[in-house]
Design goal:
Length: 159
């Protein structure tokens, strides 16, 4: 079975220039854990998860804490607490998807097998892949549940 046979095509995407306010409203309206960010040509540019939304509370990039963990003899790390003083109403329209999205996502071709998709997920420690067509355009998402469900469907466990 191929990825294109079991991917989720009814995926809500956001455009690179979508303001934070609309992104948050989209998360609230639809119960998703990830929003793909696409460009004007339908290519995936990044993804937004709850981690990227909460990053607007942090004055420095999240990777700074990871870097500090490698410093010898540094016993205490700065707390990464939510800091409301950086949050203003203007951020709802001034901060856009392009500024908070991450490029830390994995892709697979819609023509790959679901066993390859499973393998890519396992080797990268993820439960979701962005699916691209042969021209590199975004076609949907395949998650671990999609794979399991398609196997159950193929074996007649579910219809």
């Amino acid at each position: 079975m191929k990825v294109k046979d079991c991917l989720s095509r009814a995926v809500i995407t956001v455009e690179r220039g979508m303001p934070l306010r609309r992104i948050i409203e989209t998360f609230k309206k639809h119960v998703f854990h990830i929003l793909p960010v696409v460009d004007s040509e339908g290519r995936i540019a990044g993804v937004i998860t709850l981690n990227e939304i909460t990053s607007v509370f942090q004055p420095e990039p999240a990777h700074i804490g990871e870097i500090l963990k490698t410093v010898p003899l540094l016993d205490t790390l700065p707390e990464t607490d939510i800091n409301m003083e950086y949050l203003t109403p203007a951020m709802g329209v001034l901060v856009v998807a392009d500024e908070i999205m991450t490029s830390n996502y994995f892709t697979i071709s819609e023509n790959d097998s679901i066993s390859r998709a499973y393998s890519v997920m396992k080797s990268n420690g993820t439960k979701v892949l962005m699916v691209l067509d042969v021209k590199g355009k975004f076609r949907g998402i395949i998650g671990m549940f999609d794979i399991v469900y398609s196997m159950f469907r193929e074996k007649g466990v579910v219809e």
